[in-house]
Amino acid sequence: MSEKSSVGVGLLGMGVVGGGVARILSEKSSLIQGLVGGPVALEGILVRDPQRSRSFDPPDGLITTDIDDILSNQKVDIVVEVMGGQDPALDYILKSITLGKHVVTANKEVMARHGPDILTLARKKGVQVLFEASVAGGTPIIAPLIRDLVANEIITIHGIVNGTTNYILTKMSKEGMGFEDALKEAQALGYAEADPTNDVEGIDAAYKLAILSTLGFRARVKDEDVYREGITRLTAKDFQYADELGYAIKLLAIAGKENGGVQVRVHPALIRKDVMMANVDGVLNAVEVQTDLAGRVLFHGPGAGDMPTTSAVTADLVDIARNVIGNVVPPAPIVLSESIGVRPMSELETKYYLRLNVMERPGVFAQILRILGDLQISIASAIQKENDDEAQRAEIVLMTHRAGEAAIQNALKLISDLDVVNEIGNLIRVEEWD
Ligand code: NAP
Ligand code: HSE
Question: Which are the contacts of 128, defined by CB distance < 8 A and separation ≥ 6?
Fold first, then answer.
């Protein structure tokens, strides 16, 4: 590697995050130069539509629609990928690394699916790839897992890593809103996209959990390995009953060591109200890491937005730029173990909340309890909630003791086949904290 006195940056994308990065590289150029030991300058900006008006006007001549203008530019030492999506972002990242350019990316989809391969290629080519903004936006969690907690064994990771769904759930919980109304409000405020599938179905959270568990457990975890349920089945009633029972409901991303492997799951969960994670509200994110040495460590803050995400991207950029100026080749951030696999969801043991709509008749409870008893599922509490005397229907809510996931899924099938059961309202797992 040759001596360098300045660092050139190629920016792929100039939307919400790219616009922020371009602005901060300009507005905080002296600070960044001081941190790095030399100037850090934008050398090119890739966009789709060069005519689009932007939140920040970059210096003339930098905008291009041709990736080769950036990749073939010898002055570009670091490529910052903030385009999003898999294609063509993955291709551009791989090409950049192959050409010996360092990469900063905010792309959770690419890192969740291809992170280990990208990092392996980077190691071979002697370049750095950093991706702090890919999980929890402006809240540091990637660097702590790679660096600050490196002497620890990670036991569990619990995250609220999707701000949009946390906003929706907060509205449903605090204001009794239905899912659709809360979603509309999140869309009106610009949190949820017109097509909210990635957020409300837990896809975004699964990407982020795949990244966190790969780093935390040194295991190859892809988004497709993550068991996933979204928030669309939750109703205002679930929040009301959970509240009466002393619980909040959150969309949790959970990873833990289990039977020599890792269990990775994203689903709504009941959390006791006195637990810190139960009180992370609105669009905020939080990740709690349970470790053997440091104990439980909580990272809490903004998970998205132009400036918080720019903060994370710029930190990665400064980190690499320092190494470029100092001519340092840093060691690979992690080495993965091939022997740590993902454990099946059927091995989970936890407590469950079950809401059922049943016929109002003698013996209904008894039939349901018999099914649960036969499958070794013990009931902690059972409450008959609303009655509709005219329709002869009632709603019952059961809380179980710890039970096996396979058993509860079996029980659900048998219960839904009973003539006296109109509908399985919801099954929500209870997440316990020590
Ligand atoms: P965005 O506002 O949609 O901006 C995307 C930018 O990439 C636009 O400038 C677009 O060009 C450009 N682009 C997209 N596809 C392209 C292509 N094929 N060729 C050339 N340019 C292309 O996205 P964003 O919100 O900034 O997000 C960027 C990344 O950061 C994503 O990976 C996202 O998940 C991640 N992230 C975002 C946030 C957040 O708060 N927004 C938080 C954390 C992580 P045009 O402008 O010409 O359309
Ligand atoms: N859509 C994500 C969220 C933001 O709502 O948290 C980017 O990761």
Answer: 102, 103, 122, 319, 320, 323, 330
3-state secondary structure of 164: helix
Q: Is residue 13 lining ligand 2, measured as CB closer than 6 Å?
A: no
Closest approach atom of ligand 1 to CA 304? 40
pTM of the model: 0.96
Residue ranges, CATH 3.30.360.10, the chain: 142-301
pLDDT of residue 350: 98
- Residue 390's pLDDT band, with cuts at 50, 70 and 90, is confident
Question: How confident is the model at residue 2, as a pLDDT?
Answer: 61
Structure tokens at 406: 């396979």
What CATH number does the domain located at 348-430 have? 3.30.70.260
Gap between the Cα atoms of 193 and 187, Å rounded: 6
Could you tell me the distance, in angstroms and rounded to a whole number, from the CA of residue 84 to the centre of ligand 1? 5
Q: Crossing angle, helix 179-188 and helix 163-175, to 10 degrees? A: 130
Q: Domain 7-137+306-325 belongs to what architecture?
A: 3-Layer(aba) Sandwich (3.40)
pLDDT at 118 over 70: yes
- What are the start and end residues of each CATH 3.40.50.720 domain in the chain? 7-137+306-325
397: tokens are 């809510």
pLDDT given for residue 193 in this prediction: 87
Are 319 and 80 spatial neighbours (Cβ–Cβ below 8 Å)?
no
- Locate the ligand 1 atom nearest the alpha carbon of residue 312 and give its number: 43
Average pLDDT of the segment spanning 84-99? 98
d(CA 432, CA 306): 34
Which ligand is located closest to the Cα atom of residue 15? 1
pLDDT of residue 381: 94
Which CATH number does the domain 142-301 belong to among 3.30.930.10, 3.40.980.20, 2.60.200.20, 3.30.360.10? 3.30.360.10
Residues of the chain with CATH 3.30.70.260: 348-430
135-144, 253-262, 331-340, 344-353, range with the lowest pLDDT: 331-340
Active-site residue set? 208
Residues 122 and 9: their CA atoms lie apart, in Å, by 17
pLDDT in the model for residue 66? 98
pLDDT for the residue 364: 93
